[in-house]
Amino acid sequence: MEIDKDGGLVIDTDAMEWRSLAPGVGIKVLRLDRASEEWTIMIRSEKGSVLPPHQHIGNSEIYIIKGAGHHEQAGHFKTGDYVLEPDGATHSPLFFNEEVIQIMFAKGPSQFLDENGNPTFLMDVNMLSGFAEEHVLASA
Hints:
Pfam families: Cupin_7
Distance between the termini: 10 Å
CATH class: Mainly Beta
CATH architecture: Sandwich
Protein name: ChrR-like cupin domain-containing protein
InterPro entries: ChrR-like_cupin_dom (IPR025979), RmlC-like_jellyroll (IPR014710), RmlC_Cupin_sf (IPR011051)
Structural class: mainly beta
Number of helices: 2
Number of strands: 14
């Protein structure tokens, strides 16, 4: 599917399946841009889940659609908040005490880390291609 330069594209996110990123953390890949290495995902973190430690390689912007919580480095967040995570920001594990749904737009990869700060995997356009549905891949 190609994005019409005059019309745009509407994606029915409710029709998409959640793909498992980590236990209790699901994603829906909304946009991939191989040329710029930018991507947009929707993230659902279930109550009791943990987003592993990670480092941003490029700026990330997040909009909280549902839920609230506390991020050790960024502070408290709630429905309707906008979060900017700068290039190089390193984050501790994020523990979810309730379901949180967010949209994340990234201008580069996120490097996930083990408990000693060593890289475990890179979340980038190539990795996310394995989670994306055909219509997203077609426009990447």
